Amino acid sequence: MLASRAAKCLVTGGAGFIGSHLAGRLVAQGHTVRVVDNLSTGDEANLAGLDGAIEFLRGDLCDLAVCRRAVAGMDVVFHVAALPSVPRSLKDPWASHAANVSATVRLLEACVEARVARIIYSSSSSVYGDTPVLPKTETAEPLPRSPYAASKLAGEQYVLAFARAGLIEGVALRYFNVFGPRQSPHSAYAAVIPRFFQAALDERPAVVYGDGQQTRDFTYVDNVVEANLLAAGAAGDTVNGWVVNVGAGTRTALVGVVEIIGRIVGRPLAFVRQPPRPGDVRDSLASLERVKRLLGYEPKISLEEGLRRTWTWMTDGANTIPGRLESERLRRQPA
Ligand SMILES: NC(=O)c1ccc[n+]([C@@H]2O[C@H](COP(=O)([O-])OP(=O)(O)OC[C@H]3O[C@@H](n4cnc5c(N)ncnc54)[C@H](O)[C@@H]3O)[C@@H](O)[C@H]2O)c1
After folding, report:
1. Ligand 1, residues 10, 37, 58, 216: which to mutate, most atoms within 8 A of Cβ?
2. Catalytic residue among 121, 128, 148, 158
3. What does the alpha-carbon distance between residue 73 and residue 54 come to, in Å, rounded to a whole number?
4. How far does residue 79's CA lie from ligand 1's centre (Å)?
5. Cα distance between residue 154 and residue 165, in whole Å
6. Which of 186, 220, 181 is nearest to 202 (CA)?
7. Catalytic annotation on 148?
């Protein structure tokens, strides 16, 4: 769908970490890009480099009128928007449900009305839960262990149900621990890699929840963007109705990440342990068999290379964590 011509693409959540990278790549490929975002966790500053190249629509996808405006005239929708974070969902499961499930249903309704050809859904490896079997294959029974994981599974299942009903082509990409530039370390719900890098910048110990031996399949953001482009470019009968993992296909213990970061920043990163957090899983590793077979995906950027690029971004004066003041100003404006 994307391969042959300039397509009209909507990126929901495009002011966020992953969505802003995807929007940038789509623009670079010559596609027409619209972003819709309510700036709940995102920041317009993430799109600063794309001024004039994209259309930005500020609004909440729980609102059908916003969804209708967002999808009008679009060929393909990359549904990236969500309230991420397991701890956030434990604190406020209703908000996670609204942003991750209700908004997805609203968006699907609008997509069908507007005859959007395909929706590509950003799902999460968290849907697998804490199963001991590794690697995690798409045929495993999902066992979500947090409201966040349950909401991502519900959103995914809505997309696939609409696809099976023949209303739209749909594919769900289950991302494994994504990291890279523009992932904010500042939120109370920040992910582990930006938290570790921020600790290195501040020259204070990193906080590790649990014993640090838990493993994750850390995936550099460019690999995730690549998977989205492949999913948009594939023939409908290849991808429609499928769920596929998107990871790096290797797993690393948190203490291993601490060690690599120490090497990259040029001094060992000390860390302190705190009790494990509820909802966290012990080990995670993606089976890439299906995504390679269906999409021809290969993770091109390794963990270490991705960490180097992230550190370069964090320490480059031009790219300091964007727009915190700016986003506060925007939040004060009426929608
Ligand atoms: N970062 C990861 O490690 C990871 C792993 C697995 C899956 N995912 C999924 O990838 C997607 C993007 O994650 P991210 O890390 O870039 O998070 P992010 O918070 O940076 O981006 C999410 C964006 O969605 C927007 N948004 C939230 N609710 C909205 C609503 N109701 N209406 C409009 N916009 C809304 C936010 O403002 C934000 O810009 C999410 O769907 C997340 O569940 C992320």
Report:
1. 37
2. 148
3. 15
4. 9
5. 16
6. 186
7. yes
Pair 177, 217: CB distance under 8 Å: yes
pLDDT above 50 for 322: no
Q: Are the beta carbons of 173 and 234 closer than 8 angstroms?
A: no
The whole-number pLDDT of residue 188 equals: 81
Mean pLDDT over each residue of the chain, to the nearest integer: 93
pLDDT tens digits along 57-82 = 999 999 999 999 999 999 999 999 99
Contact between residue 251 and residue 216 where contact means Cβ atoms under 8 Å apart: yes
Reported pTM = 0.94
- Estimate to the nearest angstrom the gap between the alpha carbon of 94 and the chain centroid: 20
User: Closest ligand 1 atom to the C-alpha of 183?
Assistant: 20
Q: Which two tokens stand for residue 47?
A: 């799109």
Residue with token string 């909802």: 279
Secondary structure string (H, E, C) spanning 188-208: CCCCHHHHHHHHHHHCCCEEE
Tens of pLDDT, residues 92-151: 999 999 999 999 999 999 999 999 999 999 999 999 999 889 999 999 999 999 999 999
Q: Whose CA is nearest to atom 11 of ligand 1?
A: 80
Residue 160, H or E segment: helix 147-164
CATH code of the domain made up of 8-179+218-248+286-299+322-332? 3.40.50.720
Residues with C-beta less than 6 Å from any ligand 1 atom:
13, 15-19, 36-42, 60-62, 80-84, 99, 103, 122, 124, 152, 175, 177-178, 191
CA of 201 to the centre of ligand 1 (A): 25
